[in-house]
UniProtKB/TrEMBL annotation:
PANTHER family: 3-OXOACYL-[ACYL-CARRIER-PROTEIN] REDUCTASE, CHLOROPLASTIC, SHORT-CHAIN DEHYDROGENASES/REDUCTASES FAMILY MEMBER. GO terms for biological process: fatty acid elongation. NCBIfam families: PRK05653.1-3, PRK07231.1. The gene is fabG. Residues 8-194 form the Ketoreductase domain. The lineage of its organism: Bacteria, Bacillati, Actinomycetota, Actinomycetes, Mycobacteriales. Belongs to the short-chain dehydrogenases/reductases (SDR) family. Its EC number is 1.1.1.100. One of its GO terms (molecular function) is 3-oxoacyl-[acyl-carrier-protein] reductase (NADPH) activity. Pfam families: adh_short_C2 (PF13561). This is 3-oxoacyl-ACP reductase FabG. SUPFAM superfamilies: NAD(P)-binding Rossmann-fold domains. It comes from the Bacteria. It is an enzyme of class 1 (oxidoreductase). InterPro entries: KR_dom, NAD(P)-bd_dom_sf, Sc_DH/Rdtase_CS, SDR_fam.
Amino acid sequence: MSGLVAGDAAVVTGAANGIGLEIARLFYSHGASVVLADIDGEKAAAAATALAADPNKPSAAVGRLVGVACNVTDEASVQAAVDTAVSEFGSLDVYVNNAGITRDASLRNLRPEDFDAVINVHLKGTWLGVRAASAVMRGAGSGSIINMSSLSGKSGNPGQTNYSAAKAGIIGLTKSAAKELAHKGVRVNAIQPGLIRTAMTEAMAPEVFAERESAIPMKRAGEPAEVAGAALFLASSLSSYMTGAVLEVGGGRLM
């Protein structure tokens, strides 16, 4: 086998589409077996089938793919995704906390239930993933956990007091967990994407998208595959001496 994560077993949450799907695709193309976990189990299973059947997949794509339903706010559901990787692939080497939602509104109009929903998916969901994955990885003496933050958690965005707070919290969680787990050989790092072309951002008003894009030094939005490249780096041995790090993938925005 060849590839940067050849022979590894990974779980990627929010993997039915967008950035999560591209991470799963890239891991698989580099030899990993991947559990695609998503709140929509049918879409996750369909995505896994499509990736496996891709006639253009590289020769390194020799792992296996499984799609499962996973509610990241539910402890038992997160544990089931971890257990699937161990039972199907024999190990858990990489866990990517990618699942996320938005419930944008001004501070005045944001409903408490929408604040709770975003905090639960992003922050509690990441914490549950870190806890469940690290329990397996500690025993193995190795592993890489990758948490998806956002540049919104660095600068804050109007209308996103819930989302920005959750994404900032993920950085603190990442650094704290990294310090707890380093002596066990488990690395915990984070990625902060900027403006990336996904269904979420393409739902923005065109003039708002254009305004934000113009403020990026590279003068363009990023692609999901570019975030996936950072995840692959953090999953692989190329980053073996990195933990508690935060990689910005934002075209130079907020540097």
